[in-house]
What we know:
Layout: E1 7-11, H1 16-27, E2 31-36, H2 39-44, E3 53-57, H3 64-71, E4 77-82, H4 97-122, E5 128-133, H5 136-139, H6 148-168, E6 173-180, H7 186-191, H8 203-214, E7 225-228
Parallel strand pairs: 1-2, 1-4, 2-3, 4-5, 5-6, 6-7
The structure holds NADP nicotinamide-adenine-dinucleotide phosphate (NAP).
Residues 12, 14-18, 37-38, 41, 60-62, 83-87, 106, 110, 133, 135, 180, 182-183, 185, 188 line the site of NADP nicotinamide-adenine-dinucleotide phosphate.
Amino acid sequence: MEFSDRHVIVTGGTGALGSAVVAALVERGAICHVPFIAAAEAAAFRLRGHDRVKLVAARDLADEAAVTTVYDGVDPLWASIHLAGGFAMGGIGETGRATLVAQLEMNLVSAYLCCRAAVMRMRGKGGGRIVNVAARPAVEPRLGAGMTAYAASKAAVAALTEALAQEVAGDGILVNAVAPSIIDTPANRNAMPKADHALWPKPDEIAATILYLASPANSVTRGAVVPVYGKSAG
Ligand SMILES: NC(=O)c1ccc[n+]([C@@H]2O[C@H](COP(=O)([O-])OP(=O)(O)OC[C@H]3O[C@@H](n4cnc5c(N)ncnc54)[C@H](OP(=O)(O)O)[C@@H]3O)[C@@H](O)[C@H]2O)c1
């Protein structure tokens, strides 16, 4: 779990889960490159100003040019952790093409382009680690009822993870994902005030799993979509 002076890109690193991941990484010596879109979110980022955190102004990571901006100059890149993404509630009647395409861009296309950029940087240089974030409905699709566009986009992230892991294993690049159930974040607490928040996995707990998958200590695990559900039943 030691990351001394290793360069790690964390997309969505200013978000709820991302902040916990970046905090854990810098504690273990990593140099984190964190793209952001919203200036306000970057300004509020608690690790802003840390000497091993480099905030990078980027646009939408579903855009190839924006991804190039983030990955250019990060050399050598040890790990790339893709947490950028988002959720859209709604069954198929409420979510038309626009919502579906937005979910695919935010979750699948951003992860795909960042995986691609990371592979290009790691290949031929001793390899590295990639970690994506899917979601519980990606591996248990019946739980995606009422959020079909989201479930489909995260299932695609899971498939991307498994296919790419097989494709780049020979390059020494280990690709994995985590699949969280509802995370104990302020946004989720606001949206579901009556739920039993004690059952939800905490960002720090999920960060620990992500760190292992992204670390040099992980020398054999690849193609896994790891459930991180904590005590949650559903
Ligand atoms: N929270 C949960 O219960 C839960 C459960 C399962 C899976 N997940 C997944 O875990 C990841 C992190 O969740 P979170 O709760 O930490 O979310 P969050 O706080 O909303 O953070 C997500 C981050 O991703 C960024 N982002 C979204 N789309 C982007 C794009 N196209 N290009 C660049 N950046 C983009 C957001 O930037 P802006 O704020 O500027 O848009 C934000 O900084 C997400 O992929 C989410 O789908 C979350």
